[in-house]
Amino acid sequence: MEKDEVFARRAPFMQEFGFDEGTNTIYIKDNRTNRIAGVSVAEKGLMCDVDERDDCVHIGFAYALPQVYKVMEKLGVRPPKIKP
Predict the structure, then answer these.
(1) How many Å apart are CA 68 and CA 81, to the nearest integer?
(2) Burial letters for 47-80: b for 16+ Cβ neighbours within 10 Å, e otherwise?
(3) In what order do the strands lie in the sheet with 14-20?
(4) Rounded distance, CA 55 to CA 46, Å?
(5) Which of 1, 17, 34, 66 could disulfide-link 27, Cβ–Cβ 3.0 to 4.6 Å?
(6) 14-39 confidence digits (pLDDT tens)
(7) Are the C-beta atoms of 76 and 82 separated by less than 8 Å?
(8) Region label for 45, one of left (φ > 0), alpha (ψ between -120 and 50) or beta (otherwise)
(9) What region, left, alpha or beta, does residue 61 occupy, with left being phi > 0 and alpha being psi -120 to 50 degrees?
(10) 57: confidence class by pLDDT, cuts 50, 70, 90
(11) Which of 63, 50, 57 is nearest to 13 (CA)?
(12) pLDDT at 59
């Protein structure tokens, strides 16, 4: 039991930090790099302002957040298709 508690405290290296409705940007705290990454929802999908990519770990984390899908639906942006 004690081992699981230690893991639970140290495991999350990313967490949702905030959301800006005006720019449709979700902010993610990256505890490994001690930085805040802004992931913007745009017509073509998600874009990370730290890595300047659409396929980094911050993007992957953002796809796990329900808020991101709500914004994508509001803007008419379709999530990417997952290839088997």
Answers:
(1) 16
(2) bbebeeeeebbbbebbeeeeebeebbeeeebeee
(3) 14-20, 25-30, 35-42, 45-48
(4) 8
(5) 17
(6) 999 999 999 999 999 999 899 999 99
(7) no
(8) left
(9) alpha
(10) very high
(11) 57
(12) 94
| pTM (predicted TM-score) | 0.78
Say whether pLDDT at 72 is over 80.
yes
Q: Which two tokens stand for residue 33?
A: 């790099």
Q: pLDDT over 70 for what percent of the chain?
A: 83
Give all strands (DSSP E) within the chain, no chain letters.
Answer: 14-20, 25-30, 35-42, 45-48
The Cα 13–Cα 60 span in angstroms is 13
Locate the domains of the chain by residue range.
Answer: 12-75
